[in-house]
Amino acid sequence: MPLKVKHMVTKSRPKKTRKTGSATRKHPSTKIKKAVKKKAPVKKLIKNKKPTAKAKPVKKKLTIKKRAKAKESKVEEVPKKKYPLKHLYSFVRSIAGTEGLKVVKSMGDGATDEFIGEQTELKVSEIRHLLNQLHNNGIVEYSREKNMTTGWFTYTWKFNMDRTMKNLLIVKAKKKENLLNTLLEEKTTQFYSCRDACTRFCFDDAVDLKFRCECGKKLYYRDNVEHIKEMEEELNSINAVLELTPP
Fold first, then answer.
1. Are residues 105 and 143 in the same domain?
2. How many domains, in total, are found in the chain?
3. Range of the domain at 121
4. Which of 98, 207, 218, 220 has the fewest other C-beta atoms within 10 Å?
5. Per the domain annotation, does 116 fall within a domain?
6. Closest-CA residue to 183 (of 241, 115, 233)
7. Could you report the per-residue pLDDT of 151-198, keeping only the tens digit for each?
8. Strand 23-26 to 191-193 pairing
9. Is residue 188 part of a domain?
10. Which among 244, 86, 90, 92 has a CA at the least distance from the CA of 160?
11. Final residue of a domain: which of 159, 194, 219?
């Protein structure tokens, strides 16, 4: 007789669960797996993102000379002061004489050697000598242009009033200093001289000479009040010129 074979049916085990209180939870391993499967790439959302500022160009440090030039360019041009010509002309005459003053007056806004010669009727050699003398004292200035066909330079001369006034003020300031020292000596010293006024001697020198002049005549006291007045008037005229400041 054939044997009857019993087929054994295997039942699937129920999934383990943990009891926590009244509620039941699945095994943590299953929860992690599901979380991993469902995990999606996270996109970072930036709210109100500000636009990136452009990098500012680095400023180069300026040298002292460039800073000075920048300041000069920013400063507004001040209108030049008009000086009395009599002070300038007297200074020119003291440097180059009357002929030099003629040369300066004939320049106008600019003149060549030939034009100055026509105006003053002086020789070209004399004019060039006077121009060099005036230029060395800062009274005149020149500009030159080259003729491309001949290769010769043409010099145009001009009266520089600003520089002339500055030089005049420097000379007057030195003269004022010397005049003040002399004036102080005149006011505080007694002077003696002979009738012919050969030489003036102070009191100590007159005592040493036994009140006898070098010419042999007797020395007398000399009142210098008038001389002091002349010096004070000259000092006032110098102060009037020094009040004129260059632009």
1. yes
2. 2
3. 85-159
4. 98
5. yes
6. 233
7. 888 889 999 998 998 999 999 999 999 999 999 999 998 999 998 888
8. unpaired
9. yes
10. 92
11. 159
